[in-house]
User: Which sequence fits this backbone?
C-alpha cells in the first residue's frame, strides 16, 4: 500500500473514535438530566408532601371510663358428691359388684331414688346437707340422725314419738317403710339375718324366758319349801335379763348403712357422670352427682383479684350453646389456692384466687360442667371524664405526672395532670390548677421508628 493510502485509513479511524467518544458523552449527559429532572408520579407526590412525623399521638377524649376483667369459669352445682360406696358382703362374692344402674348421665332425679345397686344392695339419695359419715343404727343419737328423720318425714314416713336426733322405735318403723317402698329388705343393725342364731335380741329373749321359768318354779313350790333368798335372786336375775333384752331391742332393728345412702342439699339433683357398669367391680367412684343451684367457679390473678368484690355484676357467656346470662360476684377468696390437679390458675405461673359467681336466674342444666367466659365491670368513672392512653403518661424525678401535647405548629407542651381511674388501656386525668388540656388535644404516646 502507498504512503498516501495509509494516511487516509488512519484519518478515518481517528474520526470514528472521536464520534464514539462524542456519543458516550451525549448519552451520559442525557441520563444525568433524566435522573435529575424526570420523576415518577409517586416520587413526585412523596417529595411534595410533609416530612414523616417523628412521634405518635392520640387524641384526648371525654367519656365514661370502665375497667373490665375477663376470665374463665366452670359451671358447677353448689354441691357435688362422688358415689364410692362399699357394697354389702355377699356369701361367695370376692368383691362388691355392680348389679344394676338406675340412672343415666345428664338426667335429674328426685329424693328417695335408687341410683345404682351394688351386690344386690341399693344406693339411694335423701335430702340433707350433712354428709353421711357412719352407719345410722337404732340407739344412735346426733345431728345426722335428726337429718335422717327429716328426710324420712319428707318422703311420707312418720318417725312417731321419737325425740329429734334419737333413733328410736318410730324411726325404725320409718326406715323399714322406706326400704319397703324402694323394694329392698333393710339390713339389721346386729349384722346378722333376722331369726338366725346369735341374734342379740333372740338371745336376750331366751334369757328372759329362762329367768321367768326359774322364778315360776320357785314360786310354785310348797309354802314350806320356798326359799326367800332364792326367790329374791331369781327376781333379780329376771330383772337383769329384762334389762338386757330392752338394751338389745333398743339397738336392734333396721339400719341405714353409710354405704347405701347419699345426702344431697336439693332436688331434683343431677347425674354428672356415671362410671358404674353392670357386672363391673366397685372402683374408687361409681358416679358423680350434684345438687343445688348451678353457680360458676373461676380463678383470678393477684391484680384481677383486687378489682373484684362481692355484689359486682357479671356477664356469663357459653360459647358452646350461646347462652348469655347475668349474675353477681358471690365471693372472692382472700388467699390463693392451686386448683385440683396441681394446675395453676389466674395469672400465668401463679396461684389463683377462687371467685364464685351466682347467676341472677337459673342456668340451664346442660351447662353443668361447661367452661364459660366471665366479664366483670370492675370499676367505672362517675360520668364523662378526660382520658388519655396509659402510654401518654410520664412521671418525672419530682414525682409529677405529665402528658405532652403536640400543637398544630409542631411545638410540644408539657401539661401536669393528676391520674385517676384506669381501665381498658386508658387513664382518667385532671389538669392541675393553671394547666390547659381539653378533648381533641393530641398527646404524645410514642416515637415513630
Assistant:
Amino acid at each position: 500500500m502507498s504512503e498516501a493510502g495509509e494516511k487516509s485509513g488512519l484519518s478515518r479511524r481517528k474520526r470514528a473514535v472521536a464520534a464514539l467518544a462524542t456519543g458516550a458523552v451525549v448519552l451520559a449527559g442525557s441520563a444525568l438530566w433524566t435522573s435529575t429532572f424526570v420523576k415518577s408520579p409517586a416520587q413526585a407526590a412523596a417529595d411534595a408532601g410533609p416530612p414523616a412525623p417523628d412521634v405518635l399521638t392520640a387524641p384526648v377524649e371525654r367519656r365514661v371510663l370502665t375497667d373490665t376483667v375477663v376470665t374463665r369459669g366452670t359451671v358447677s352445682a353448689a354441691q357435688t358428691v362422688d358415689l364410692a360406696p362399699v357394697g354389702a358382703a355377699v356369701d361367695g362374692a370376692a368383691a362388691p359388684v355392680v348389679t344394676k344402674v338406675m340412672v343415666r348421665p345428664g338426667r335429674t332425679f328426685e329424693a328417695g331414688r335408687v341410683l345404682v345397686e351394688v351386690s344386690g344392695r341399693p344406693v339411694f339419695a335423701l335430702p340433707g346437707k350433712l354428709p353421711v359419715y357412719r352407719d345410722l343404727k337404732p340407739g344412735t343419737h346426733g345431728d345426722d340422725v335428726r337429718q335422717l328423720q327429716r328426710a324420712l318425714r319428707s318422703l311420707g314416713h312418720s318417725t312417731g314419738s321419737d325425740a329429734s336426733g334419737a333413733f328410736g322405735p318410730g324411726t325404725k318403723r320409718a326406715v323399714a317403710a322406706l326400704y319397703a317402698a324402694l323394694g329392698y329388705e333393710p339390713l339389721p343393725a346386729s349384722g346378722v339375718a333376722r331369726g338366725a342364731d346369735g341374734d342379740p335380741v333372740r338371745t336376750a329373749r331366751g334369757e328372759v324366758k329362762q329367768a321367768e321359768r326359774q322364778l315360776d318354779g320357785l314360786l310354785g313350790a310348797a309354802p314350806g319349801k320356798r326359799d326367800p333368798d332364792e326367790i329374791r335372786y331369781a327376781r333379780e336375775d329376771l330383772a337383769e335379763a329384762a334389762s338386757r333384752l330392752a338394751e338389745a331391742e333398743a339397738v336392734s332393728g333396721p339400719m341405714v348403712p353409710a354405704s347405701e345412702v347419699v345426702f344431697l342439699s336439693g332436688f331434683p339433683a343431677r347425674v354428672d357422670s356415671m362410671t358404674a357398669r353392670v357386672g363391673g367391680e366397685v372402683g374408687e367412684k361409681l358416679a358423680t352427682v350434684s345438687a343445688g343451684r348451678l353457680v360458676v367457679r373461676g380463678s383470678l390473678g393477684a391484680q384481677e383479684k383486687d378489682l373484684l368484690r362481692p355484689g359486682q355484676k357479671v356477664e356469663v357467656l357459653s360459647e358452646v350453646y350461646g347462652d348469655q346470662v347475668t349474675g353477681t360476684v358471690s365471693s372472692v377468696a382472700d388467699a390463693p389456692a392451686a386448683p385440683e390437679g396441681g394446675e395453676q390458675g389466674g395469672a400465668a405461673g401463679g396461684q389463683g384466687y377462687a371467685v364464685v359467681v351466682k347467676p341472677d336466674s337459673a342456668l340451664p342444666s346442660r351447662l353443668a360442667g361447661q367452661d364459660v367466659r366471665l366479664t366483670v365491670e370492675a370499676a367505672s368513672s362517675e360520668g364523662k371524664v378526660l382520658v388519655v392512653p396509659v402510654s401518654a403518661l410520664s412521671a418525672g424525678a419530682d414525682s409529677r405526672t405529665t402528658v405532652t401535647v403536640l400543637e398544630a405548629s409542631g411545638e410540644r407542651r408539657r401539661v401536669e395532670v393528676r391520674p385517676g381511674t384506669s381501665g381498658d388501656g386508658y387513664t382518667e386525668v385532671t389538669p392541675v390548677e393553671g394547666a390547659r388540656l381539653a378533648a381533641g388535644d393530641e398527646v404524645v404516646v410514642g416515637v415513630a421508628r
Q: What stands out?
A: The chain has four domains: 56-66+382-447, 68-75+293-378, 85-189+253-274, 200-250.
